[in-house]
Design a protein that fits this description.
The protein has helices at 15-21, 26-46, 66-89, 105-117, 134-147, 154-158, 206-217, and strands spanning 7-11, 51-58, 92-97, 124-132, 171-174, 193-196. It is an alpha/beta fold. Bound molecules: 3-methylbut-3-enyl trihydrogen diphosphate (2 copies) and magnesium ion.
């Protein structure tokens, strides 16, 4: 495909509703959602997308029932173990975005290990937002600047973000019909093209990604100028 976005970000929503519709447990929905992650990563590699950023757990998600939260933490740790071989095989660089220091210790170790193991790859830059909050990221930026006694401009602020070299997303996809940002990448999406679909995340596949990219290709991006 020509003219693909350099960076696609996805709010992967609707796992719980997918499960409830089938009389399953919400956690089974999250497990089904993992297959969509795999499909989308493969498609991004095939379409030569440079950056893919996925929202897996927000800081607000800690307020869910503890069984769901602990199930999700276990699922994340298991996925890292299970997918590392395939990710390395495809030369995917994986980085995690968020307050990693507050993740359960076992998961933290796996997170740093996966980052280390894939740090020299660049065929696809996969960023996994976990324990992430857009406002939290900006608060952390402000505190860093204050500690360093710095005033910031837009460029130097960027240097204080969790991953300074992550380019702004060109396309942000949200599944499950919700029309909101839910505290994702607030600073980074200033000029991102937004795409919403009713498809629930576990049903999302290559065809849905192609539809989103095609919609993006029809957009006229003006960045405040006249074209
Ligand atoms: C998204 O699916 C995954 C996470 C937030 C962890 P949800 O769990 O939010 O699914 P719905 O929105 O309740 O259907
Ligand atoms: C956003 O989905 C967070 C993730 C997809 C990880 P939520 O389901 O938490 O968002 P709200 O509650 O519908 O805004
Ligand atoms: Mg949701």
């Amino acid at each position: 495909m020509d003219d693909v976005p350099n960076h696609i970000a996805i709010i992967m929503d609707g796992n719980g509703r997918w499960a409830e519709k089938r009389g399953l447990l919400r956690l089974q929905g999250h497990r089904a959602g993992v297959n969509s992650v795999r499909r989308v990563i493969e498609a991004c590699i095939d379409f030569r997308i440079n950056y893919l950023t996925i929202y897996t757990f927000s800081i607000e998600n800690w307020n869910r029932p503890s069984t769901e939260v602990s199930g999700l933490m276990k699922l994340f740790a298991m996925m890292i173990e299970k997918e590392i071989f395939e990710l390395k095989e495809h030369k995917v660089r994986v980085r995690f975005l968020g307050r990693l220091e507050s993740l359960p210790e076992e998961l933290q170790k796996k997170v740093y290990w996966l980052q280390e193991q894939t740090k020299n790859f660049s065929d696809l830059n996969l960023t996994i937002a976990i324990n992430y909050s857009g406002r939290g990221e900006l608060v952390d930026v402000v505190n860093k600047a204050v500690r360093e006694g710095k005033l910031v401009d837009e460029d130097s602020l960027r240097e204080l973000l969790y991953i300074p070299d992550l380019p702004d997303p060109d396309l942000l996809i949200r599944t499950s019909g919700e029309l909101r940002i839910s505290n994702f990448l607030l600073y980074e999406i200033a000029y991102t093209e937004l795409y919403f679909t009713d498809t629930l995340w576990p049903d999302f596949g290559r065809g849905d990604l192609i539809k989103a990219i095609k919609a993006y290709q029809r957009r006229v991006r003006r960045f405040g100028t006249l074209i």
